[in-house]
Write a structure and sequence with these properties.
Shape of chain B: globular
Largest sheet of chain B: none
Order of helices and strands of chain B: HHHHHHHHHHHHHHH
CATH architecture of the largest domain in chain A: 3-Layer(aba) Sandwich
Strand content of chain A: 15-25%
CATH topology of the largest domain in chain B: MetI-like fold
Largest interface: A-B, 46 and 43 residues
Number of domains of chain A: 2
CATH superfamily of the largest domain in chain A: Periplasmic binding protein-like II
Distance between the termini of chain B: 47 Å
Radius of gyration of chain A: 21 Å
Number of strands of chain B: 0
Order of helices and strands of chain A: HHEEEHEHEHEEEEHEHEHEEEHHHHHH
CATH class of the largest domain in chain A: Alpha Beta
Largest sheet of chain A: 5 strands, mixed
Strand order of the largest sheet of chain A: 10-9-11-8-12
Strand content of chain B: under 5%
CATH superfamily of the largest domain in chain B: MetI-like
Helix content of chain A: 25-40%
Distance between the termini of chain A: 46 Å
Number of domains of chain B: 2
Radius of gyration of chain B: 27 Å
CATH topology of the largest domain in chain A: D-Maltodextrin-Binding Protein, domain 2
Oligomer: heterodimer
CATH architecture of the largest domain in chain B: Orthogonal Bundle
Helix content of chain B: 55-70%
Number of strands of chain A: 14
Amino acid sequence: MRKSVLLGLATAAIFSSSVQADTLEDVKKAGVLKCGVSTGLGGFSAADDKGNWKGLDVDVCRAVAAAVLGDASKVKYNPLTAKERFTALQSGEIDMLSRNTTWTLTRDASLGLNFAGVNYYDGQGFMVTKALGVDSALKLDGAAVCIQAGTTTELNLADYFKANNMKYKAITFDTSDQTIKGFESGRCDMLTSDQSQLYSLRIKLAKPDSAIVLPEVISKEPLGPVVRQGDDKWFNIVKWSLNAMINAEEMGVTSKNVDEMKTSKDPAIGRLMGGQGEKLGLDDSWSYNIIKQVGNYGESFERNVGTGSPLKISRGLNALWSKGGIMYAPPIR
Amino acid sequence: MYVTNKILPELPAPSNAKGIVHWLKTNLFNGPINTIFTFLGLFIIYKIIPPVIEWAFIDATWFADSSSACKLENGDRKPGACWAFITNRFDQIMYGFYPASERWRPNLAGIMLVLLTIPLFFEKTPKKAWLGGFILLVFPFIAYSLIHGGGLFGLPVVDTSKWGGLMLTLIISLVGILFALFFGTILALGRRSSMPIVKSLSVVFIEFWRGVPLITVLFMSSVMLPLFLPEGTDFDKLARAMIGIILFQSAYVAEVVRGGLQAIPKGQYEAASAMGLSYWKSMFLVILPQAMKLVIPGLVNTFIALFKDTTLVLIIGLFDLLAIIENVLGADPAWLGFHTEGLVFAAFVFWIFCFSMSRYSMALERKLDTNHRN
């Protein structure tokens, strides 16, 4: 496995270095943005009953399509598994990847890719049964933990318990569905996984209210959109499409009031609404299109994973920096 | 001495040698050990069957627009199965993301295939060979033009990335079975050929493709192949997967067919040559019809395996029946937590298809049985 990955990377490096692609031109010519998404992750990228893709990650694809093509619906979704996602991007099968991908040094530096920002700050958390009466992970000394085998969560857990001088008994499962079944049948006191996943696993319980997610987050999993290295123009477009969504939330511009805001006297909002497109090689209405058709970051969050969705994930770290979170975008000026 | 010139009439069997009681006594309560096992079996059936029936039928929710119908007011699951999870999005399970307005096209192709195939099952149909040839050589183009669009009828194109569900499973299996049978037979003949190059090429091909797992083949076709093609070449994912599956299954079919070829007595080959038949004629008129008949169980085995292996295409991002249920329906936040119902339904559909294949092969064996074995 490892060998084949290395081989793949080596060939990818050879191929990607020899090609100087202009992704923006390609996308404009094709009239459609090829976006790599997950094969199915509730709230992030999942197809509804009409076959439309929806989710927080999907909204980043839609935002870029709105900015570049003026139409958020002009996206061709390419569902990818975790293993094929980077190759699909390297080989040019997709123009960008928005598939709950953690930004790490290794990936950024050695895969020939660039991370264009963070659209969800995830991290490993714990879920326990309410009956246990525990409000902090630090009170879980000696607990039996349900965990998915072979993931980084396993390593993080070991580190966390060792650092806090506590003991635990790991009960490993192959898939997340088996893990939640194990938790439900009482084989363990708590379940650990990335927080975004804990919420969807919780809904899978026969009695969702019988479990709570603890506040502790023990690892950093910044998830964000990815583009190929070597095409800085495209890199900027994806980066600033996401930033425009975050800035719009900060300035209170929503899909509903965006038309009124166009005439706002606030110079910052004025810059968000126009005058900057040319620098990115886009129409001047790029940001207007994003906000009008996709909405600002907050709207997207609430609609897909927040209170407006069955997942009901609280904003937490993903709240704006001005509201107690760390979601922060450089200014548009 | 008692002498009679009439045959005595048959008397009914004594009452202790017939009827339900007798059957029970000889089959279920024949001695203490069997009696214990009978009761144990009855107890296990009692423990399993009623709860399953209760879950699947009596307490089940069959139709609903939202998952709340399958939940109690406080958000807990109702005890019964939630078939609404399946019925609500049944169309997607069947067709994947194929646009609703165009679904008559795969339906039409499917109906055409069934109607064309039915006459083949009757002995008396005239010109069977022509009909078979039409199905194998002409129909695929019609079906492709219908389902994919373009081609013969100039219908709007529905990209293969939109194909999915049971439709995709059936397309992959049918194409896989047909091509694998064709290439497999050629390879089997090649492996038994006296021409060294043909023979060694066949051996290498078969041993190579048989020696790698299907999952690797699919993975290579989806992950490695694009790296070797010029950037931006968008080689259809489904076509890549199909080619992979066909290459892989051909190797298996080849070995099954070779088993049949080896079982044909040498005299048959010699007789065919003595009749002055060419190699191809002797193969297709004398040897293969007999060999194929012998290997029906092995072939059907391979095809059933292929049918089930199609579920692996999920790893390259194609949504077959199981993938639609697991990854599309299963990932919809509005319907989280109905995993079991989805898997039970998928298992049921797969069972129907595999069981029919196996029954058909048994019927075919009986029909073709010429009593030559003894």
